[in-house]
Amino acid sequence: MSGSATECGDHGLPHSGPVRLYPRGWCCALHTPAALAGRPEPPPGPGWPSAAWINLTDPDTDEGQEQG
After folding, report:
1. Helix, strand, coil: what percent of the chain each, to 5?
2. How far is it, in rounded angstroms, from Cα 25 to Cα 7?
3. Residue of 9, 38, 20 lying closest to 29 (CA atoms)
4. Residue 9 CB contacts under 8 Å (≥ 6 apart), including other chains
5. CA nearest 42: which of 63, 22, 65?
6. Distance, CA of 11 to CA of 53 (rounded, Å)
7. Per-residue model confidence as pLDDT tens digits over 18-47
8. Cα-only R_g, the chain
9. pLDDT in tens, 45-60
10. Contacts of 55 (CB under 8 A, 6+ apart)
11. d(CA 51, CA 34)
């Protein structure tokens, strides 16, 4: 492997920010595909859906017991 996780693979200067792996290789914040195209970085996704929890029932009640 020619690059490491701490070096931007682009030979242009200057470099800035953390280095992350992209399909084209390791890139700093100034050399990401979006930055090279003149676009802002996309925002992070919304995360897990609200219904993705493992335990949806109240642990203090029995399955057959009616609440109220």
Report:
1. 10, 10, 80
2. 10
3. 20
4. 2, 3, 24, 25, 26, 27, 31
5. 22
6. 45
7. 888 888 888 888 888 999 899 998 877 677
8. 23
9. 677 666 666 655 666 6
10. none
11. 32
pTM, entire model? 0.51
Structure tokens at 2: 């020619």
Half-sphere exposure of 58 (CA within 13 A, CB side): 7
Phi, psi of 34 (to 5 degrees): -70, -40
Distance, CA of 6 to CA of 15 (rounded, Å): 11
